[in-house]
Amino acid sequence: MTQENGRELIVKATDAGTRLDRFLADSAPELSRSRIQALIREGFVTVNGGAPRARDIVHAGDRITMVEPPVQPIDLVPEKVALSVLFEDDDLIVINKPAGISVHPGAGRKCGTLVNALLSHCKNLSGIGGKERPGIVHRLDKETSGCLAVAKNDFAHLDLSRQFAARRVEKIYLALVAGKLRRGSGTIVAAIARHRVHRKKMAIAREGGREARTDFKVVRSGGGASLLECRLHSGRTHQIRVHLQHLGHPILGDIVYGGRRTGDFSRQMLHAWKLAFDHPRTKGRMHFEAPLPEDFKRAMREVLS
Predict the structure, then answer these.
(1) Residue 90, CB half-sphere, CA atoms under 13 Å: how many?
(2) Which residues belong to the active site?
């Protein structure tokens, strides 16, 4: 049964025992799971008249109401900034993000972000991300450079979001880290959660947390440092930074997670090197590679010689 601006669902016996967010994702395939989780958090979903959590289990006969609010209009000012475009068509744009620029506005910041530049370049972006994150399907830290995909319309945004959620997107980073590793490759499997004291930081979870896996391979070592290729199998906040600190080899320049900051690495030496996904409309596999920025090359020369 549908309602204006939303829908009402009755849980069947065959769906009982399923997580609420998964049940709603199956019932409303046009919405991504992350979008559904946001609607639950923001109070737009009720179960038997009460406020649920995404992880709650549904039972036969539960009456679920989900209302999707209208997308908020974008109220950001476009800014004409040169972008390094790796690919662009009517559905999406892939750029080589420079270090030092935030992807989207945050508290107290309405300008000088990548979104401001994209609004000038693209004119239109998907509104699903909300008025401050239009088109943003995934993010990179302010100090991280490299491949970033942005959706130009809601169709592309939903499809790319599903690919990220299903882990069909290939993400390979290059990281310049302190020390020489004892082995040439390996896998870090350690759940990540918000730091118990420093709430802006993440940490390896002692219990609970969200599972995370990072594969790493040594590309080159020398001078007390190593260049690693890191492949993400999950997309947790600060995942590579936290995992490499946990391994005992923090990223150079990452003062938040134990990396020293001197010489030519005035920011964390982390670069989103390669990105691959299926085109939302054609379904063809697409591969992108972002060239190393000059500061990363200088840092490599300094510490690997």
Answers:
(1) 3
(2) 141
